[in-house]
Design brief:
Elements lengths: L2 H26 L7 E4 L2 E4 L15 E5 L4 E4 L5 H14 L4 E5 L5 H4 L11 E5 L2 H16 L17 E3 L4 E5 L4 E6 L9 E5 L4 E9 L12 H11 L6 E6 L11 H19 L4 H4 L14 H16 L3
Parallel strand pairs: 4-5, 5-6, 6-7, 11-12
Antiparallel strand pairs: 1-2, 2-3, 3-4, 8-9, 9-10, 10-11
Helix pairs in contact: 5-6, 6-8
Length: 316
């Protein structure tokens, strides 16, 4: 048999043997997240306006490239979102994902974790995140199963293997790029983690910063503490910031001004209502409505914020 024919047969045999793997790869990448490079090597998949468990792709998620490996910052609200983000990474680089950083417990940021669960990938979060995931995970799975996302199992609640201690910093070296992870004090939740890319001076605040979408105080969060923290963070120099909801990138520190205005109005109106001995049911119709029309999802979340603020501030 001529050498050329033998080489052709070998090549075809190798291709046929790889068909299952090729089919799997093609299936995994039927959807590719649309990402924006907001600074060299920093990519964000901007979220859409919507509600958790009802709409897809509502949080800002993304990844940061290093010479050695990639850090993913949040994975979305379903395995489908996580896979689409993974496929976007494969389009940009051949280096592996070595870290998945979860900024906090909320499901629109963490339910895509399973798409990145590999031996070479470490999951990192705030020291309070494992407890929060364990407490809320079953509720998330139950509610998600009724929505438009993938069918989920307990395996989809992927706990962090490494935790950043309260108000401490952890540096991640991606190769030619260092990320500074800081476990923040109680604010939006009690498990908020921020990321600062020292190479491009990009500050990733996740849900410590809302734009367009009304700010939402989490069940373990604090109105007063959130205001204190965001005003402190405004003093941190940065070229740009990534909010948890809103545009992929915003100028800093002015990006926080609208959120501070809303949270301050909520605080001040609630305090005034309490001083008048106002009850909570009536507060739902009287507190903070100067902000109506300025935020998406106002009707869905403002009354919840009033309840949280009232409960916190009545004991001042």
């Amino acid at each position: 048999m001529p050498m050329l024919n033998r080489l052709l047969i070998v090549a075809v045999s190798l291709l046929v043997s790889q068909w299952p793997q090729l089919a799997i790869a093609e299936q995994e990448c039927q959807q590719i997240a649309e990402v924006t490079e907001i600074a060299p090597g920093v990519f964000v998949r901007a979220g859409r306006s919507g509600s958790i468990f009802e709409d897809k792709d509502i949080a800002n998620i993304g990844f940061i490239l290093g010479k050695r490996c990639v850090a993913v910052i949040d994975t979305g609200g379903s395995e489908e979102e996580g896979r689409a983000l993974s496929c976007a990474i494969k389009q940009k680089t051949s280096v592996p994902v070595c870290y998945v950083v979860n900024t906090h417990v909320h499901p629109d940021h963490i339910l895509g974790n399973h798409a990145f669960k590999r031996p070479e990938t470490r999951f990192i979060g705030h020291t309070n995140l494992p407890r929060a995931m364990s407490l809320l995970g079953s509720t998330y799975l139950q509610r998600a199963s009724k929505g438009p996302g993938y069918s989920l199992s307990p395996d989809h609640i992927v706990l962090p293997e490494e935790q950043v201690q309260q108000q401490q910093q952890l540096d991640l070296d991606l190769g030619g790029r260092v990320l500074q992870l800081t476990a923040q004090p109680q604010a939006h939740t009690d498990n908020d983690l921020t990321i600062f890319d020292t190479k491009t001076q990009t500050l990733w605040l996740a849900d410590l910063l809302f734009s367009k979408h009304i700010p939402v105080i989490g069940g373990s969060g604090s109105l007063n503490a959130w205001l204190k923290l965001i005003e402190k963070l405004q003093k941190q120099p940065a070229a740009r910031v990534v909010p948890g909801h809103g545009p992929a990138s915003m100028p800093w520190p002015e990006a926080a001004n609208d959120e501070i205005r809303y949270l301050s109005r909520l605080r001040d109106d609630t305090r005034s209502w309490l001083q008048q001995n106002g009850e909570l049911p009536e507060a739902f119709e009287n507190v903070g409505y100067a902000e109506k029309g300025k935020w998406e999802q106002f009707n869905e979340f403002h009354k919840r914020n009033i309840s949280t603020a009232y409960t916190e501030l009545e004991w001042e």
